[in-house]
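debug: dumping io for the single-chain case to check the tokenizer round-trip. Nothing else runs in this session.
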Amino acid sequence: MTEDRRRMLRSWVPAILWTGVIFSLSSMTVFASSIIKFNMIDKLAHSIEYGGLGVFLTVGYRGTFTDDRRRWVTPLVIVTGLMIGVCDELYQFTVPGRSVEFYDWCADTVGVILGNRLATEFFRWRAGEAKQQAHIE
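debug: decoded output
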């Protein structure tokens, strides 16, 4: 296996594993929102778990594309995150005690966008640090 393929594989493993975590949580019939009495806890949970997905998808796509094609990372992260969110909501339809809610999907969307933004800003900061380091040396 070439080094490029290994790098790409390593880039995608976190996103794949995190998607598994999301679907595992969706399989639970009793969730924290039924225990904690806070009206929006479910939406907050969706945003947090999909924020992680947004970060990991950004890492995956950045590991896949060369620098000249990285302009496609954010749109692909958002579309992929939205599709996973739709699949998650449809999956919850099959789980007893779970429901499908449009606002859950909206919270998923917000999480993916924020996660992508966070990861993108981190990569920009890291690139800036590397440039500064190169000027010092």
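debug: round-trip ok. The helical segments are 3-26, 32-35, 41-64, 73-93, 102-136.
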